[in-house]
Structures are given as C-alpha cells and as structure tokens.
Amino acid sequence: MKQIESYRHKKILVLGLAKSGVTAAALLHKLGAFVTVNDKKPLSENPEAQGLLEQGIKVICGEHPVELLDEGFELIVKNPGIPYTNPMIEGAFEKGIPVITEVELAYEISEAPLIGITGTNGKTTTTTLVYEMLNEGEKQPLIAGNIGTVASGVAEIAGKDNTIVIELSSFQLMGINTFKPKIAIITNIYDAHLDYHGTREEYKRAKANITKNQTEDDYLIINADQEETFEMARHSKAKIIPFSTKKVLMEGACIKDGWICFNQEKVMEIEKIVLPGRHNLENILSAMAAAKLSGVENHAIQQVLLTFTGVRHRLQYVAEVNGRKFYNDSKATNTLATIKALSAFDGPIVLLAGGLDRGNEFDELIPYFENVKAMVTFGQTAPKLERVGQVAGIKCIKRVDNVDKAVPAAFGFSEPGDVILLSPACASWDQYKSFEIRGDIFIEAVHKLK
C-alpha cells in the first residue's frame, strides 16, 4: 500500500464498527492517527472493540454520546449503515468536521487501479463476473467492498500489478472526497433505500458520486436502456461506454444476431451462456465491457460465461427434490429484483416472499405473476403481498411464520416440474440480520426435505 502521511497525528473518530469500522480503525492507527472508536454495542458484548483496545486504540462503547464531538476530532470515518440524520453526524456537520466512509481510505492507500460497480440491482453478480473474467485473463484481480471483503483491507495488500474490483453501495459513495475508479459501472437505477436517502433524487446523487472524480482518462459504463443513467453521466468527465440489451450499438456492449458484442466485435453466442435470466444479460454486458477495457481476451470471457451459474443468494440453484427445482434469490430485497427473478422462468412457480415493511406496496409485481401458481408469505409485508396475489388471481396463498416453515408449505403446493423460488421482494431485517442468513435458512430447509 501507499505509505501516506496525511493522517499522521490527526485526531480521528471511527463511528460504528462492524467489519469496515474495525479495518478502518486498525489502518488509521498504522498510519499514525490518534484514533477513537465509538460503537453502540457494549464493550462486554463487543469482541471487535476489545481487539482494537488491545492494539492501543481508544474505545468508547454502549452509546453514541454527542458530547464526544467536543474532543477536537479532525475527521470522522462513518459506518455506511449509520444515516446522516444520526445526531452524531448532524453534530459533526455543525462543527465542520468532515465525514467519510472507509472506501475513501481504500482509494487513498491503494497502489492498484480500481473498478467500481454500483447501481440498484445486479451489483454483486456484475462484480463477481468482472472479477472472474479478469482472473481468467490473468490480470491478478482482488475483490472487495459491499460483496463481503472490506475495501481498505484489500487495498493494504494490493500491489501495482493487481486490480481491485469493488462493489459500492449508495451509503458508501455518499462518504467520498477523492475516490476515483479507473473504470466505473452503473448497472441501473430504481427506487431503493428511500428510507435512508429520503428521495429518489438524493439516492441518484449518491450513486452518481462514483464518477464525480473521474477524468477523461477513465471510463464510465452505463445502462443505455435507462434515460436516468445517461442523466447521471451527463456531468462525468470520463469516457462513456454504453451497454444495451435492446439496441444495437456502434460503440459499447450489446446483443446482435444472437451474440454479445463489444464495439461491434462478436464475443460469444448467447445460447452458450449458462447464467439464467434475461436480466443477467445486462450484468454480463457491463462486466464484459469492463473486462475488454482491462485488456482481457475473448477466450477468457467465454470460459467464464460457459461455467458461471450465479452468485450465492442471487437466483442460486439449490437442488431438485422430487422433480421440483429450488432457487435461492434471497438477495432480491426490492420488487424489481423479484420481477427479474420471476421473468427468468417460463414454467409454474411457487413464490416465497415477504420481509421488512418499508411502506411501499407491491402492485408492480402483479403483471409478472402470470406463472405464479401459489404463494407462501412471511414477515411484516405478508398481508400486502397476499393482497396483490389475490388481485392477480392466485388461488393458493398461505402465510407462515418464517422462511424455515415456508419451504415445506411451498413444497405442499407444488408438483413435479415446478420451480420453488425464494425471492422476497423485501429486506430481511424484520426477522433476519441479513439476506445471507435468510438464504442460508432456505437452503437448509430445502436439504431437510431430501
């Protein structure tokens, strides 16, 4: 990593731990900063904070005391999940204390160029595809960010010959100053996290931060099938690389005559791609564009697309039990993701859905319920989903307590040849700490049926 001096002897508050806070605190300590960590979880229940304490880092746990801001901090590194309406953050802004997220640190210390991926849906699949294509092309990639590995921790070990492929949330992108990827991808934009951002415009503004520091030497890959992404790119200085599943493009990534193409060059026949779902063609095209811009040869891209069947919890094939195929799409935390999952299958579907109630209705799902023969609902949104199911004419609808009970209930509604699909259309936080835990419970319940 770069041995930067900009944090030496600076008084810095790391607000909120989890993985990113722990990594950021330890890194800043190495860089010579005077670090204080503040986390809401009590110290006795907080092994992460205890570990930082053992490194000689000051730790304050159990609450977020606003008076802590009077201690003269020059910077706050905020956990992305803490909203900007938090009294500590509002107090920091009133005092003129800058607030960043951990990905800013990653950029500052990284010797490796970055490929950053954001958008509403498809981020994880696209990030994984880019990583796999670069890896197959022997470009020595490292994967980081919202996909599970803390970006600044990866940047610590990255060298000039590596490329860091990083998935970025809107929460992370709100806290950047100089962060600049060599290649940026905006997969798509739809309503999401409005409980955090307040409005769609604020959400879009956060996503657009991925390109705010790019120059004419950088690339911004955008969805040409969405006018909004073009609007977001309008103020970018980067070279715009469009992708489209609907239009043939002279420049960029598109579909032509049954092939995926880049700058009019045929790369691979669509029928040979094993990843299911029309929506995944968007992810494939944007990933291919990033790979081609990174110098990856066609044969490496082809090899990945011949074998890549998807990421865990995103339309993940789990098993076949007595002729029923089970798919885990727990990462579908909004209606658009569930629409894309429903559109991926032609045959009868038993849908498992429900979760955190963010105040939205689900009427946009109704046109895509044509192949849904039965629904099993759970969580806070169960009544809302049952209502739209009834409007769509679904006869078999059952409410259960949780995902574990939903699997045998769905099996009872099904017949050989059916798809049993967990695609909740909601976040998991009413019942589960993460969509990963929800998906793992689904997988366990499927294997119990065997």
Describe the structure.
This protein has 450 residues and is an alpha/beta fold. The protein folds into 3 domains: 11-100, 3-Layer(aba) Sandwich (Rossmann fold); 103-307, Mur-like, catalytic domain (UDP-N-acetylmuramoyl-L-alanine:D-glutamate ligase), CATH 3.40.1190.10; 316-449, Alpha-Beta Complex (Protein-Tyrosine Phosphatase, Chain A), CATH 3.90.190. The chain contains 16 helices and 20 strands. The chain has helices at 18-30, 47-54, 87-94, 102-109, 123-136, 151-157, 170-173, 194-197, 200-208, 227-233, 279-293, 298-307, 335-343, 382-391, 403-413, 435-449, and strands at 11-15, 34-39, 58-61, 75-78, 99-100, 114-118, 141-145, 163-167, 183-186, 219-223, 239-243, 253-256, 259-262, 265-269, 316-321, 324-328, 349-353, 372-377, 396-399, 419-422. A 6-stranded parallel β-sheet has the order 7-8-6-9-10-11, sandwiched between helices. The chain has a 6-stranded mixed β-sheet with strand order 15-16-20-17-18-19, with helices on both faces. It has a 5-stranded parallel β-sheet with strand order 3-2-1-4-5. The longest helix has 15 residues, at 279-293. It is globular. The mean pLDDT is 94.
Concise account of the structure shown:
The protein is of the alpha/beta class and 450 residues long. 34% of the residues lie in helices and 21% in strands.
